[in-house]
Amino acid sequence: MLGSLPVLNLSEAKFECIFGRGCDGICCQQGRPPVTDDDVARIEQALPKALPHLREAARKKIEKVGFLSDWKKAGRRTLRVADKWCVFFNQGCVLHKLGMQEGDSFKYKPVVCAVFPLDVTTKGQWYVRQWGVDGEQWDLFCLNPEASPKPAAESLREELALVERVGTKPQS
């Protein structure tokens, strides 16, 4: 636990994001994350800076129909996909990269993406997504607790701090 945020399986969970070190960002492929009104406002603020850095197909799709899909997840609109990837993915998350340039990698990124693999159970409790926990359906190798010896409490310090900073109310 970091601060006062209770996370059900934090003491035993293992996780390490290896994007760029064997992972090409598979969590951004067909992900369609649900976004909050606050997420949308931050993305709209970043959009003029983001467009030149997007893949051509993604940029054209956004210019034609916008970055929000009509498809909903958990009652919220989701980000569009272009060529099977989130429209903001281009060798990494463009929103993440823009935020990093400004000193806060989470500044423009949807909260549900920024705190991955933290999620909320159907009972409203925070947990670390892992194979075999709360009926996890996504077969991402990074969610296999055997894939990393690194304790999630250590590797997810920034994500846990973000959840505490934006409030402990679940975003997804």
Key descriptive features of the protein:
two-stranded antiparallel ribbon, 6 strands, 6 helices, globular, 172 residues
Give an overview of the whole structure.
The structure is a single chain. The chain is an alpha+beta fold and 172 residues long. The chain has one domain. It contains six helices and six strands; from the N terminus they run ααββββααββαα. The protein has a two-stranded antiparallel ribbon. It is globular and about 45 Å long.
Count of DSSP helices? Answer: 6
- Note the run of SSEs as H and E: HHEEEEHHEEHH
**Terminal Cα separation, in Å?**
20 Å
In one word, what is the shape? globular
Percentage of residues in helical conformation: 25-40%
Number of beta-strand segments: 6
Evaluate the radius of gyration.
Answer: 16 Å
- For the residues shown, what is the average pLDDT? 91
How many domains? The number is 1
Main beta sheet strand tally, sense and closure: 2 strands, antiparallel
**What is the SS-derived class?**
alpha+beta
Percentage of β-strand residues: 5-15%
Main sheet strand line-up: 1-2
Uncertain segments of ≥5 residues (pLDDT<50)? Answer: none
